[in-house]
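Explain this protein:
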Amino acid sequence: MEMNTRLQVEHPVTEMITGLDLVEWQLRVASGEALPLQQADVVMRGHALEARIYAENPENGFLPSTGTLRHLRTPAGLVFSVPDAAHQASAAGTSSLIRIDSGVREGDAISPFYDPMIAKLIVWGIDREAALRQMLLALADYQVVGVASNVAFLKRLVACRAFTEADLDTGLIEQQHASLFPPVQNAPYSVPALAAVALLVSEAVIDDDPWTQTDGWRLHGALQRPLNFSTTSAAYCLRVLYGTNRWDMTLGETLEETGNPVGLVRHEGCDWWIRIGADLVQGRVVRVADVFHVFDSDGSHWTLAWQDPLALAYSTEAAIGRLTAPMPGRVLALLTAVGAKVDKGQPLMVMEAMKMEHTISAPQDGVIGQIFYAVGDQVDEGAPLLAFQAAPVHEN
């Protein structure tokens, strides 16, 4: 049994179904006032659900993520921190309501020194089924760029049978692993097409000087150009033929070849409307350097890296021989030394961030060549931690 003499993270759920402001109550009681209601006077209406929007990577063991919130969009039609709005909505015949409690805005940084929660998303419905529908719609409209987030995972969680039927226990994630972590799917053709149009339009130069034009004009025929995008699991090669106010795009290599005339209808900020053949496609494209984040009409978030052929070649570390930090955090313990011979799976270092510990283990038998950090050092995600030399394989 536990009693906490403080508000819990989930207190908005109580506020949404009772119409009471528990924060106000707490302040009044702390000032010496009496509670304004007795327990018997508390009336509950409808159903509420709360989802914690976290800067974390569910596909990487829910390790926390840090960075700057480059893009943050929340569901439209929100009521912020007005707990009696649920009662007002019920009285007016409205079937659902959304509330967001958050302490960060677009442009803020999520650091490794505090809890990685971005916001609490609370929905209210006349019953559980209505609240579940509202939560799915709200999550589909929640967009985060700059850090990894659990939004897509929460959508799968709310939609899975065990959750919708409230068949819940502490083993839910393990039991429903197949549906909560499905195989990565290839992006539909519209996703790289949206990224490509955003890129091509951003390159356009409006100038009377013919030498600065980027409309693809050529003396004999139109410009043909490859645009290469990639995700963590697939590559998308678009062959683009420039036309007047449109492009012919063919997507091949990883997907069945699709050739279509693609035209820009309009765009407002990061919202784009394009026409692919006879179909009108809408999406939101957020560009961070050479990475394009595409949110399609059903709320799916795709991250595509553009392979700029004119960019300088970046030096990359060889994957073999380097052990890197899976998350930003602090070195909690060193369990080996330079020159030590280690066995596959042997713990080498322990990192800690946001109340979570992660052990770095030897990927195979080998020798520690160098250690780049000491206990107490702060480490960025992806930073090399140790130089590791694999033991030679001897054939019989």
Remarks:
- The chain has nine helices and 25 strands.
- The radius of gyration is 26 Å.
- Residues 190-306 form a domain with the Glycoprotein, Type 4 Pilin fold (CATH 3.30.700.40).
